């Protein structure tokens, strides 16, 4: 059953009367069946992070992971939870691509970014290595 668009929007913004599963389902319906650019066309990234739309995704991950960090499994306080993007490929549509993001504690979030930086550094070095060998071939 597809929830009508105006209902979706009403449910997403109404945390008092609807459960997190209902709000998540409404956001999913909105993006999947009505308007995939609904969120993207209304927010820049900074504002998005303070919007109900992002809060619904965060709260849903939090609920699904039993209020634990999805990386180290430690319990996380609601106000301390953070979401890390493995990729920004589906920014504003994460509701359909939950594998792109992970709910983490502060410590894990820092570690994830350190790992990412190492990977980037390694890729840079590899790229340089490639261009050197390429120029030698020429
Ligand atoms: Zn953690
Ligand atoms: Zn991150």
The helix fraction, in percent, is 40-55%
**Uncertain runs:** 132-138
What is the 3D form? Answer: globular
Radius of gyration: 19 Å
Average pLDDT figure: 90
Query: Helices and strands, in N-to-C order?
Result: HHHHEEH
- Count all strands and give the number: 2
Main sheet makeup = 2 strands, antiparallel
| Tally of helical runs | 5
Task: Give the spatial strand order of the biggest sheet.
Answer: 1-2
Small-molecule components bound: zinc ion
Oligomer: single chain
Offer a concise description of the structure.
Helix content is 52%, strand content 6%.
Write the layout of secondary structure elements.
Layout: H1 5-12, H2 20-34, H3 45-48, H4 52-64, E1 82-85, E2 101-104, H5 106-137
Antiparallel strand pairs: 1-2
Helix pairs in contact: 1-2, 2-4
The structure holds zinc ion (ZN) (2 copies).
What does this structure look like?
There is one protein chain. The model is unreliable at 132-138 (pLDDT under 50). The protein has one domain. The protein contains five helices and two strands, in the order ααααββα. A two-stranded antiparallel sheet has the order 1-2. The protein has 138 residues and is mostly helical. The longest helix is centred in the last third of the chain and has 32 residues, at 106-137. It has helices spanning 5-12, 20-34, 45-48, 52-64, 106-137; strands spanning 82-85, 101-104. The site of one zinc ion (ZN) has 5 residues, from strand 1 and helix 5.
